[in-house]
Design brief:
The termini are close together. The longest helix has 32 residues. The chain is mainly α. It is elongated and about 70 Å long. It has eight helices and two strands.
Length: 251
């Protein structure tokens, strides 16, 4: 097993447990992996991304307002933009807090920010996970934190992807506030990189949304698949913080 040594579980007994139950319980072990700030951030971040993707889609492809009501009697697109901006600020503040906890939390909190790219063993384990997900390998390895492929995916899609979306989103938001605004002074350079072409920034920001949507689909599929087929818990770990293992073999 990777990342930690696990203490053997306590012996169990009970009138309603047979020998097979006791043998199964003795094989299962648990490690506290994800601290509360990481778990809270995960679910708030997921909710914010969902709102951002839905409202972002409608901002890129506005609903036909005339079928809702005369423009003077409705504010549908305004509400969509407000929800998008509010969720964007929640995402931004939450991501800043997640960076803070990566510094002061346990070593698992730093996995999505630091990749051991110079480790040949790590890349070998990435390939092992690819083989497992492609149904080539017969059995996965056990990991206390993220497996290497999940770590790589989190870095590319969340660490880099969300950073890109925050910077481009705040640059576009600052444009509406005016050139004398604080945000314009902080993020105006993003527009400059794109030749002060805000429509081009809009386009890349919208493409970034689809980049994260792809990740969300894969992430949900893999989490459910791993809960069923792998040797450790996945979904419940991000609720309780504890990673539970289904066997007592070391690797």
């Amino acid at each position: 097993m990777k990342d930690a040594e696990i203490e053997p579980p306590m012996a169990l007994s009970g009138a309603h447990a047979d020998a097979e139950d006791l043998a199964s319980a003795s094989r299962q072990t648990s490690v506290y992996v994800y601290e509360a700030p990481v778990r809270i951030w995960h679910w708030i971040n997921a909710a914010a991304i969902l709102v951002l993707c839905v409202t972002g889609y409608f901002i890129g492809s506005p609903p036909p307002s005339m079928q809702i009501a005369e423009p003077v009697y409705q504010f549908v697109f305004g509400y969509i933009r407000f929800a998008h901006f509010a969720a964007g600020w929640i995402l931004t503040v939450g991501f800043a807090g997640r960076i803070y906890w990566a510094i002061f939390g346990n070593h698992h909190a730093r996995q999505m920010f630091l990749l051991p790219i110079f480790s040949g063993k790590w890349w070998s384990e990435v390939m092992d996970e690819v083989k497992w997900y492609l149904f080539i390998a017969k059995e996965p390895k056990k990991y206390v934190g993220h497996n290497p492929l999940a770590q790589l995916a989190m870095f590319c899609f969340i660490t880099l992807g969300v950073t890109f979306m925050i910077f481009t989103g705040l640059a576009l938001y600052s444009e509406g506030l005016g050139r004398d605004s604080v945000l314009q002074s902080l993020f105006g350079w993003v527009l400059t990189i794109f030749g002060d072409n805000s429509m081009l920034v809009h386009t890349y920001h919208h493409l970034g949304m689809w980049w994260i949507v792809i990740f969300m689909i894969i992430h949900i599929y893999v989490a459910i698949r791993e809960d069923i087929m792998s040797r450790q818990s996945i979904v419940s770990t991000m609720i309780s913080g504890h990673r539970t293992f289904k066997d007592d073999r070391p690797d």
